[in-house]
Amino acid sequence: MKIRTKIIGMGLLLVLMTAFSIVGVSIDQVHVLDRSISEELERFIHNETRKVVENVYLMCRAVQQQQDEALERNLGVAKSLLEGRGGVAFGTRNIHWRVVNQADHGSRDVTLPEVLVGGRWIGKNPEMGVASPVVDQARDLLGMTCTLFQRMNKSGDMLRVATNVQKEDGTRAIGTYIPHKNPDGSPNRVVEALLQGKAFSGSSFVVNDWYVTRYEPLFDRSGKEVIGALYVGYLQRSLSSLRSGILDIVVGKTGYVFVLGGKGSQRGKMLISPQSHLDGINMLTEADRQGQLVGRRLLQTASQVAGDRRQGTIPVRFERYLWRNSPDEEYREKMVAITYFEPWDWIIVAGANLEDYGDIQQHFVRSLSRAIFLISVVALSIVLFSLVVGYYVAGGIVRPLEKAIALFDRIGKGRLDRRLDIRRKDEIGQLASAFDCMIDNLKAVTASRNELNREIIERTRMESKLRATSAQHKELISIVNNSPAVAFRWSPAGQWKVEFVSNNVNQFGYEPSDFTSGNVNLLSIIHPDDADRAIAEAATRMEKNEEDGFSLEFRLIRRNGDICWVDARIWAVRNERQEVAYVQGVLLDVSDRKKAQERVRQLAFYDGLTGLPNRALCINRLEQSLAQADRDAKSVGIMYLDLDRFKTINDTYGHAAGDKVLQASAQRLNSCTRRNDTVARLGGDEMVVLLPGVDHEDQITAVARKILKVMAVPFQVQSYELEVTPSIGIVVFPQHGREMGELLKRADIAMYAAKNMGRNRYVYFTGDMEQGSRVVDVRVQADPVKPLEGFAAGEPRGAWSER
Prior knowledge:
- The protein is 43% helix and 23% strand.
- By secondary structure, the protein is an alpha+beta fold.
- The protein is elongated and about 155 Å long.
């Protein structure tokens, strides 16, 4: 085998081993990366569905907290009505009842003492057209169903003796009772709480449907034994705004949120679903493509979620299954997040169709496949290139050897007319050197030739380096010009001349030449309100010589005059004397982020319907006003305002008309106040007006009179003229108190006094108003989940009592 073949074979073997190693490692890493992408995508879907189901849980909790407060307040009103009638007592007569168990509809005969209210028997009234005492009065005042229960036995079965809850035939549900045990043998939660002398709030089954309820026990005169109960509540399915909010949620492209019942008669029942044909069906019988019962799996997982609950957390679990919404559709794999809202016995499920995210994974797969193909092409090119190079390298080694052999043969024959002319450090070079030593005059020629070769090699190397550097510079310029961030460079020479601005500065309407030519000063396009601050902060930060640079946010003026927010990242490059050689940085348009931040702030502190400050912002401003007034020895006027007979407008003209009245009222109230005053909406038709820094009570009276005057003008809503008047209660800090809660409570008491005096007036608080007042405390804390403030403000106002 010739030496040429050996050299080429050895070089090719080494290159092939290297190329195959690179391709193999690349393919292995591509597979690893593909698995990592799949896992990361699954984690992303987990996080997205978790966030959705947690947000729905928080929405339910916020609505439930508001309902609990309203139910507790309304039950207090019903109890006051009952006590105003003389309370509950038992007569001497026994009344025969044919009682029906609301759970299993079993019936039996019982005899119980007659129930007296105010010393008169309440009767057995099944007809809705005939008024029943207390319960119908409470319904008319509160807009909710109301029931008076009589305890049937020691076990605690509760009989409806007066109610306006209707049976399926439209009659009153008197004679039905709540059993102390459910059909499955478990204790009834309502009866269990009442027998312990506790009130019960939450979702419960009432006669033939599920209601949001509150029960409170009634005791005998000793106050020790439970003799009955008082109830208020409304249908659970009437939570229209919450249902709409849940149905509007979209997970991914086609995913959605649905709600199942967890226990009792609604166990496995589809309560809320964007697929209308699924509403009300029992999911316990629905199977996926493998025949597994999806509803049972979801209920089992929900029971595990209920056991996972820890303080301050929302437990969530996940399931995967194949599902189709109708027989006409193909099965699709779904991933769902599941949590359990115990107060309403709701199983909340947020599902995402995995194929919605398939485009992302396919994009990565195509990119990885392309990467493998490019690596393979590069490896093959290296092999071919190495083969060619190996051939020429082998020739470069073999040819001098063949030439040396021929010359040595000629020298052996005494012929010195030719020279080898080779300078190398290997064996060939040693032979050539020995040959050159024989002829002294050839050394100078050989030395000149070697020097020339070294110069040519050096020039060639420098030219290659310059070409590579130029290519890298062009590539970097292309990357910068195609990025969203605008790059720039300033030089202190020539009054801070702009040396470079990337082409993508045209996103602001400018061209790079505008700045490099000096036609536009880069500092001149900073918004005038931000310019001094930004320049001063930049100078301060550069004096600190921060190696990692620093960031500034300020507004920029586009060429068309529009304003945008930018985030400037700036580095000062210094020379060996620590002087600033030049300043470089990037500008990134962050206007969308600023708008999102402003939107979040607006949702957290302002009412979504009227645009007024909400309870959280009102309480914050009231705290500041009281503290400032205390320091300045000033007064603060607080008006508690309620629209008279607002519920009648909602019931007669609809909630859309009520919303228009609230919005117009907010505008009129704002027109009556100063710039530093605050008009806030606490909820429903209740509003608060804060007048800080007043010197005399006359100033507050003038504002109150102005409000009565502007509100006296009828409201034009659609084709109707609606007359809406306010009742205003007024307190003054510090005359009527120094604590915020005390002041708000007394303002509310004064407002009730204004209503009792005939409405459409203002009344200042006096000490004798607190005697006999039913106002307990006014809540002075905002809801814990601030992003839901705007949602709560948009609740239907029909749930608020007419004052």
